[in-house]
Design brief:
It contains 8 helices and 4 strands. The protein is mainly alpha-helical. The model has no long low-confidence stretch (mean pLDDT about 85).
Length: about 160
Amino acid sequence: MRDDRSCTGRMQHSYETRRRAVRAMLGGMSASAAAASVGVSPTSARRWLARYRADGWAGLRGRRPAPGRRALVEAIARFRAERDYPPSVRDLMEAAGFSSTSMVAYRLRACERDGLIVREAGLSRAITLTSAGRALAGLPPKPERATADDARRERAA
């Protein structure tokens, strides 16, 4: 299988390349020699060996992509339903399965830009789902609240 570059510009090595390097290291070859035999850096070879030791051969397969905006919006909806107040960035990281708070912040900005959520500047827990966000999370539309103006209009009519 041909190695290729990802959209981030980093080299993506095939599963077989990773497996050959790890097998060589398990057979007693140094990380430098194993890396040279498959044309990668010793750092990559050591990282693959660590992934193998943690997760077996499956650890050398491609990583699952980070959760997307749907997972984030659903986590916001679940958290609000369970606790009756908005989640923090760390709460969302744990609830939606993100690897870091910076990834949650990135996805929150994307959701805000796409009109799925509204956040108030300067407040950490000020996250509200819009009608589009509620639809994405599978929630019914939020009922309109009656206002004092509505009552005045009804009396005047």
